[in-house]
Input
Amino acid sequence: MISNKKITLILPCYNEERGLRSLLKQDLSFIDEVIVVDNDSTDDTAAIAKECGCVVVYERKRGYGAAYKAGLKHIKEGIIIAMDGDGTYPLETARDFILKIVTSDIDFISGDRLSQGKPASMPCLNYFGNIILTLVTRVLFINNCHDSQSGMWVFKQEILKYLNLRSADMAFSQEIKIEAVTKKFKFIELPIEYRKRAGQVKLRCLRDGFRNLMFLFKKRFF
Output
């Protein structure tokens, strides 16, 4: 716990045995519970999670948002750290984010990979896709957003009941930020390092980018 707040790490995983094993070897001393959502994996993701003492939640409906929604139902209190299980996000930075939340009126902190320029580990096509989606998000919803697609967030569990989260796919990442801002919760972004992923790349840049773009317009106007 930190400041008497239970800390839960949630990791949505589809075939992430390589990244997950490495991530779970890091310093987890400040985390009370780790929830791994096995999103219909065909490798040893669930076995590795259990071996490391994690709570495993199974969600057969494949999709980034579907996995998150299944896992978040199991968290009833405290502060949530959400990130991918592929090793791309800096877990050690989460402690600083938590301290920021418990010592201020902030409800939601999103990691910002882009404000300091293109991360070396991010392919050029992905980078420009992120820039375009962030610009559209700024125009439609969050006028000071720097990285709408970031997959690392730390937030108070208590705000979840107010968020209308519909996406079952990659758009969930931008939707949870949009919901937090439009529901008037205190939202900020802080810079983070973005690392090279471990294991197979699941993101289909053009397809997923187009779907995220269409989702933004649908959420705004319909």
